[in-house]
Input
Amino acid sequence: MRQFVIDDLTKEECDNIDSYLKRTAKATGLDGMYLLPLADDLLGAAQLGHESCGPFCFGLELVRDPGREKLSCELLVRSQANLHCSCICYATPLQRDFLLRFLDRMLEEERIRA
Output
C-alpha cells in the first residue's frame, strides 16, 4: 500500500491530531480511522462517471499504541459505496497535493513537531 506516514508522535500530538481529524474529517466508527472526502472538482478520470460509487475519500489511520504512535494516510482514493471498482485507484498528482496540503495545514495548526 502506498501511504504517507507521520510517526514518532507524542501522546499530546496524537490527542491534537485526533481532535483536528474529528473537526475536519469523517469518523468511521472504528477507533482512529477517518475518511478525508474529496471534492468533486478533485475527482480524477477514474472516478468521473462513477457517481454511484461516491463519495470518494482518502483513508487516515491514527495509531495510538505506546511506542508506535503514528498517522498513516493512504494514497489510495476509496469509494464509500463500493469495495471493488475501477474507480478505486491511487491518487492523481492533484489529489496527492490536496492530501499533502491538508496534512501540512494540520501539522502547522496543531503544532506537530514529529
About this structure: The mean pLDDT is 95. The two ends are 22 Å apart (CA to CA). The CA atoms of residues 22 and 34 lie 8 Å apart.
